[in-house]
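Format is sequence with structure; example below:
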Amino acid sequence: MTGVIEERPGAGRAAELEPRLAEHRRELTGYCYRMLGSSFDAEDAVQDTMVRAWRSLDRLEGSGALRSWLYRIATNVCLDALDGRKRRALPVDMSAEPSAPVESSLAGVLPDGAWVEPALDRQVLPVGGDPAEVAVQRESVRLAFVAALQHLPPRQRAVLILRDVLRWKADEVAGLLGTTVAAANSALQRARATLAAHQAADTRPAPELAAENAGLLARYLDAFERYDIDAFVALLAEDAVQDMPPFAMWLRSATDIGRWMLGPGFECRGSRLLPVSLNGNPGFAQWRSCGPDGGHRPWALHALEVSGGRVVRITSFLDTRLFTLFGLPDTPPAR
């Protein structure tokens, strides 16, 4: 930045603490993602957090305070980013009715930044740990849950994530936010009430683990790549939902999803898929065929929800920048 002189902390201090900054990157990314609803914004927020932390390493008192200090910086970065910003949502949550008939479903486009973006599990979820805590972490990055979080005022959002997801104590949260324990507890109760109201409206069943549906996911990949739409539709729940940011469209029935794939989505024939883990659920990266000359190019990330042995939701994100952000190749890997 022009006019700003960055002073590095003492060499010994930096050597001691710099590797520990990197150790916290994944959990900070998960925190910022829940706060902001965007993987791109979360990445920027964590980078900003690390830069601010690096500039101030020499002022940190006690290495044991590093984690809470980083969260304080990250919270301030997120609160600044959310100031005056409209909340993100999913297309199905932006309208009480499907946006358009199947044939004209691609007519409406959402404004940039309107939708909740996906997150790659390995960038936002911890590795290993207590199975019960891992389950809480997985549930807390579900697309529906992250979208529900966006209904909360930013400070309430921070309190709820810190208390109910990351299991911080009330006095720790109060200290981080510079408020009283009573005020922090009051904010938590209001946040829980708001979140419960929005989750009550979400009647979709809880997701199931990818490992429990390996056969279903293998059939999904096979049917999509062969573009056998009858076989594909047979894998969907009767009332399955599909949406596709940045388009405003959403569909609610296996029949309409099948019609869409044979209509507006027909150019997906010949695609290649690669299994990925998105938002605590199974998903696929899709490379679409370049045509008769061969080859494939990045096209979409499919985030799935599965229940009762059927796919109940498909959210396809067409922002190909996600391939770069998630470290996915430009062409599908050879099998």
User: Anything to note?
Assistant: The first helix runs from residue 11 to 23. Strands lie at 236-243, 250-252, 272-278, 281-289, 296-307, 310-317.
